[in-house]
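Minutes, methods subgroup
Present: GH (chair), OT, SY

1. OT presented the first of two proteins processed in the latest run. Sequence and structure tokens recorded below as shown on screen.
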Amino acid sequence: MMSQQNPFQNVSHYYENQDPAQVVRTSLATDLVSKPNNKDTYLTFTGQETDIGLDSHIPKNYNEFMKNNKKVFAGPPPSDNKDSFKAQQLIDLQTVRSKLFVRGPRGMVGLKKNFKMMDRDNSNCLNFQEFYQGLLNMKLDLKELRAKNLFDLADADKSGAVNIDEFIDLLVGPLNSFRQRLIDLAFKTLDRNGNGFLEIVELESSFNGRRHPECISGEKTAEECKVEFMSLLKSHHNSSTGFKGSMRVSHKDFKKYHEIMSIFYERDNDFRNLLLGIWSIDLRQVDPQSAGGQRPKSVGKTSKEQ
């Protein structure tokens, strides 16, 4: 079943009670520095696990730095505060994730569509102004400094441009090998001629809405599940191909869309049930002559013994 709990709820709640124009310097940040051996605090603050004490992650003079900088710092922090700045960037990333998550899959797909609309030279990359405008179009209520933090986090090579797909990947996060194999299996099963592409009409005819988890639970009808899923898939595909009206979905595009869908299924088994069901990849064509229901050739023997 699709997860109803927002995994970023704590971060979202934290931000709702802060002045968005100020750098984080609340009790959460205080805990991060005052409890250097508390691994849970670091995990909450950065979204990452650590096997060592926090002393190596956060500079000793963090509190002093925040105390002397009441206003927002516009540029990169001093070299001895790089870890604190990175932690702030990760907080901003979690905040955007949280706001998109509550909108369901439409949030992530909508963000990619807005970014592609800003990509006027069709380079699949955005400068900061294009990047910020795309975020504004999504009404995420994100201040310019917070957007700049995200931009700098995604612009790892400091080229002054952010790759759209790489930023979406940053928001979605890495997929484990089990889920990657499921997506690859679904594509391979649907790509019957092995040409590496799937036609939109082929996907629509293959989609089984009756086996969608939300149909099984009674939340939606099979047709509602199909219309919603396919409309988002087509919107994502249209964005990925630069709004050229392409009707052929590549393996990469198919995979990227299902990676977005994956974040709304917390358990691997739930995501497995989704893919096995809607694409019927657990069903196989059976030779009628060898199908079940026939009379045994020999009485008293199992099919294996025969």
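2. SY then presented the second protein from the same run.
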Amino acid sequence: MYRDPSLNAITYFESVARHGRVARAAEELHVSASAVSQQIKNLEEHLGITLFRREKRQLSLTAEGEQLYMAATSAFTLLRDARTSISRQRESNQIIMRASPSFAVRWLGPRLSHFIAAHPSWDFRVDASPDPSNFEREVVDLDLRYGRGNWPGLHCEAVVYDYLMPMCSPDYLAELSQTCTSAEQLLGRARLVDSVKTTMQWDNWLARHRIQRRSDTSALRFDRSSMAIQQAVNGLGVVLDSTTLARDELLDGTLVPLAPELGALRFPAYWIVSPARHQSRHLVKVFSEWIKDEASRHEQEIKAYLAKRGIEVTDHEP
């Protein structure tokens, strides 16, 4: 099976071709001249071609050697440019992060103006993606991930605690209340709107509250919380989802708790995730502290909203 020549051999070849002499290449590479000559010989044998014409003490490229030299020069230029770009990025005030899509749009996005106003010289990039970063292959400083915090080998710190409860539009609640007098009856008749990626699904929540529903009751399922919440706003059913993501709708009254007596579950939902080494970077530290401050203010706001409506909170470990 054919194997590509080693990068080391190509490096030696490119240096010899550029200088025209083995000795000068050896000096540049900090190796012996014999080591360089051996690498060139091995490369020629591997490729089955002659790369240099030996004329007295000077080397000149053959047609095949010229072709390889042009390709090698182009490749090394790309590598140097990439290295420079990465180096400049790490030295500049630039932070690159990835966040869960609904969280990025509904929670992080509206708050970023505060951070940017405080740090106007920073460059900022946010990728809204459900896929976690591969920190070994991608240039990413940190993730803001939704989940349980169980990502081995990475620094994981819970920063946003979520409150989960059934919510619906006021009109939908009024419609249900015409024939229902208890929370159990409300849920028995309601169309349930499922966000399939939330930590707790309707089945588990209903079992936790010992509520049974008929198996033929209709339901709606979406793979994004934003979609599920919007359908509840549209009056299509009751959504069991994040008060963090539905914060604006709760405060403006387009969503209301289905039944305060059902309570709310509190759990660590959004996490700062990165390799441990990234935590020493100044930019990551500053941004992480800002996120924590914003999360603290947000939680106090949600707590006040729930307390005003007599909704009890239960801590839950996902």
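Chair's summary of item 2: The chain is about 45% helix and 20% strand.
Next meeting: continue with the remaining queue.
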